[in-house]
Amino acid sequence: MYGKAFAPEYQGALTALSVNSSLPDVLAAATEQLAAARRAGSPLETARAGLAAAEAYRRLGRTEEAESAWKDSYRTARSAGDAGAMAWALWSGGTLARQCGRLPLARRLLGLAADLGERGGDVVARGYSLAGMAETGRIQGDYEAVRRLHEQLLAEARRRGEARHTVWALEGLAQIHRNTGDLDSAHRLFAEAAAIAADAEDRRGHAWALRGLADVVSVRDGDADQALALLAEAERSCRTMNLRSALAYNHKMQGNVRYRAGRFAEARDSYAQAWEEFRAMNEPRGEALARLGLAKSRAHLGRDADKTAAELDELAETMERMGLRHALEMVRRARAELGPAGAARPLEVAP
């Protein structure tokens, strides 16, 4: 059995905040508490409020402010000599680094956070930091190396009955299965994650699980309408909580679904929307993936083949520089689909 989802990154005087609190509300509460903690001369409460502010800034796409906030939180936690608070600040910094495409830095910060969490006896900080390392490896396409870590973290989360972390681990494993071609297992895991998140009232986790389900329904079943309905449901949660990154990835997935269905003009518009959203929040991985979909859609709509080929070459360099193995394979497949000169070929239709 799982309890209601909670947000361990909201600590001290901010523990009353819900996992579903809107990010502007979180930021307002964190800013107010940060000022109060500084006036009271409490380094630990200052570090905790700074952590909540950093996470709100990050999820709102305000990356420069997030960078400053997590570093301030870490320095204050260090001055207080609290290893757990230091671990949480480094976890936030590592998560931000991954969001901004700085994957080696993300792994280093998250590794330090996991070590501090263990030394400080904060099992949740350790678990979240190891989860961040696993997610970073998964994004890089290092599936075999991180599959076991995902499974280990899932088992730990199930034992603790922690819904939010269970949902995360299920979604991570589901994504690995999806990317390695086991669509039935991916569907099963995404569906379980969606059910647990719904019961635990974890809207963020539920929105991500629905996005994964929509992807599998589109690829495995060829059901674009059902996939878009799932994405529309997820989009409502993203907008309610102002989850800018999740919303942008939702729009990119809408582009994927429409592209697979041969609805290229609609796909182009979805990818263009996602691309602008990713650019606005400085999320280069999402930006590159949306741009890839946009290039493919434009090719099918008659764009000059040489321009498409040049853009694919540029995207391949970007993916390789960021260490995104799976995304680099996607560029290779795009070249095969569109031809060496970037001219669109008819999509294969399953019998």
Automatic annotation (TrEMBL):
<dbReference type="Pfam" id="PF13424">
    <property type="entry name" value="TPR_12"/>
</dbReference>
<protein>
    <submittedName>
        <fullName>Tetratricopeptide repeat protein</fullName>
    </submittedName>
</protein>
<dbReference type="InterPro" id="IPR011990">
    <property type="entry name" value="TPR-like_helical_dom_sf"/>
</dbReference>
